[in-house]
Design goal:
Blueprint: H1 18-39, H2 49-53, E1 57-59, H3 62-65, E2 77-83, E3 107-113, E4 120-125, E5 130-133, E6 136-137, E7 143-144, E8 147-151, H4 154-172, E9 178-182, H5 187-193, E10 197-201, E11 205-207, E12 212-214, E13 217-221, H6 223-231, H7 241-259, H8 262-265, H9 268-279, E14 282-285, H10 290-300, E15 308-312, E16 315-318, E17 321-327, H11 331-339, E18 362-367, H12 374-384, E19 388-394, E20 402-405, H13 410-417, E21 427-428, E22 436-441, E23 463-464
Parallel strand pairs: 1-14, 2-9, 4-15, 18-19, 18-22, 20-21
Antiparallel strand pairs: 2-3, 3-4, 5-8, 6-7, 9-14, 10-13, 11-12, 15-23, 16-17, 20-22
Helix pairs in contact: 1-6, 1-7, 1-9, 5-6, 5-9
Keywords: Membrane, Transmembrane, Transmembrane helix
Pfam family, one: LytR_cpsA_psr
Biased composition (Basic and acidic residues): 464-473
Length: 473
């Protein structure tokens, strides 16, 4: 395995600032694949989906991936979504033709659908993330050498979707079930089919190069304007990949929210226009058949935009290269939470004790994890969810996280326990004052779940499809 860093650096002849442009030109294309999955559930009502689905290209990648893969632990579904900047065919109008240069992918999102279809999460992998890349088999049977230190987007260039799957499975230990690769074609039609996508600009933008001219504030954009927006490289954000991903996630959330709205799903003309446009831009693995898509769509039919979340894989500055990023210590527990997700919808409503809302729960937070500042960070998260934090402190190191309660506070403790990963069983705390609850953060603590969100902990900076597009992070 190659020990030298493997980077993907490209210079577009027509682009004086390629690093800032690359992310934007892919931004909307991943949204197309997301929309196709989200709205497919309604297609059977119109008897036209087979026509549209026939446009989808499919690749058999099993032989390239091999059999050395993570074990699947539950019925969750993981779909890798890739944005490809292939300039073949009708895509050639969007920039120069890349002679003797394979397509590349600067957008990689793992869509995780929880068991039972109650919620979904889109996990973004920064293009500059440094990872270990395994040796990969190309379509022609030749091998590309692996690297102990490679920029993650190099996997697509050197080995296609199969290599990206192997790379992400290697760093996350999460089994990927399918992939969806989308390109330029059909983006304008997608935005027009849903009636436009809402975006919010913090300041006026007047960019002659992209043709984008919008005032500050909220706009509904489609067609050429939407295309100019996602390709714009001037006046939007600070140019960092982190900022780009946040805007990307907001755009995908807004598009998904629109695609899931009644106005789109119940309008046959809009619906078929959306699917036709999206399917022409899509390639998948051979096992993601039309029938499988419909099965997935039916399982997702109960997901509301408030249950569709977007997060970035836990990462920070790479200690070896300030221009790159690396996974942080929070990545391992995050991947574990995804891999072990056992979220299922409730079997049926049943009589239960009256629920105590978070704003009626007084809690003290004790750090027994050995990690400096953990109690303060968790306290902030609790307050964000409405809990009354009565104080923080340190405790003797404990391997496990505990929820304790004083006299008369058992139901309050149950409210707290529901958002602690692993849902520890509340126990009496003899030294606690009556009505008081305590959270003792142990070494096994990963994060808090959003109240009512199921088995995946809430992540810092996450975005929901139902969020106001003008909401500041």
């Amino acid at each position: 395995m190659n020990s030298n860093p493997l980077y993907m650096e490209y210079v577009d002849d027509a682009d004086p600032q390629p690093a800032r442009r690359r992310g934007w030109r892919i931004l909307g294309w991943v949204s197309i694949g997301l929309s196709v999955v989200l709205v497919a559930t309604a297609l059977t009502a119109y008897g036209t989906y087979l026509n549209a689905m026939g446009n989808i290209g499919r690749d058999d990648v099993n032989a390239q991936i091999g059999t050395n893969r993570p074990q699947k632990l539950n019925n969750a579904l993981n779909i890798l979504m890739l944005g490809s900047d292939s300039r073949a065919g009708k895509n050639s109008k969007y920039g120069r033709k890349m002679k003797n240069e394979p397509p590349r992918s600067d957008t990689m999102i793992l869509m995780h659908l929880s068991p039972g279809g109650g919620q979904a999460m889109g996990i973004s992998f920064p293009r500059d993330l440094m990872v270990q890349m395994p040796p990969c088999k190309r379509k022609d049977g030749t091998m590309t050498p692996g690297s102990s230190r490679a920029q993650i987007n190099s996997a697509f260039t050197f080995g296609g979707p199969a290599c990206v799957i192997k790379t992400i499975e290697g760093i996350s230990n999460i089994k990927i079930d399918h992939f969806m690769e989308v390109n330029f074609v059909g983006f304008k039609a997608i935005t027009e089919a849903v009636g436009g996508v809402d975006v919010c600009l913090p300041k006026d933008v007047n960019d002659k190069l992209s043709g984008l001219h919008l005032s500050a504030g909220k706009h509904t954009i489609k067609g050429e304007t939407a295309l100019a927006y996602v390709r714009n490289r001037h006046g939007l954000g600070d140019g960092s990949d982190t900022d780009r991903i946040k805007r990307q996630q907001k755009f995908m959330g807004a598009l998904a929210n629109k695609a899931m709205s009644a106005g789109t799903l119940t309008n046959p003309q809009k619906l078929f226009s959306l699917i036709s446009a999206g399917s022409k831009s899509l390639r998948t693995d051979s096992e993601l058949t039309t029938e499988e898509m419909m099965k997935i769509a039916r399982g997702m039919s109960g997901i509301s935009s408030g249950k569709l979340r977007f997060v970035t894989v836990p990462s920070g500055p790479d200690p070896l290269d300030k221009n790159r990023v690396a996974l942080t210590s929070a990545a391992a527990p995050f991947f574990s939470a995804i891999r072990n997700d056992k979220t299922v919808p409730p079997a049926a409503p049943k009589a239960a004790a009256a629920k105590i809302p978070p704003n009626q729960v007084r809690v003290r937070v004790f750090n027994a994890s050995g990690i400096y500042g953990q109690a303060g960070r968790v306290s902030q998260d609790l307050e964000t969810q409405g809990f009354q934090v009565a104080g923080t402190g340190n405790a003797a190191t404990s391997a496990t996280t505990k929820v304790l309660y004083g006299a008369g506070a058992e139901q309050q403790a149950q409210t707290l326990a529901k958002i602690v990963n692993g849902t520890p069983k509340p126990a009496p705390g003899p030294k606690l004052a009556p009505g008081m609850v305590a959270l003792v953060i142990g070494q096994d603590f990963t994060n808090l779940r959003t109240a009512g969100s199921g088995g995946i902990p809430k992540q810092t900076g996450e975005i929901r499809a139902s969020d106001d597009v003008c909401k500041q992070p």
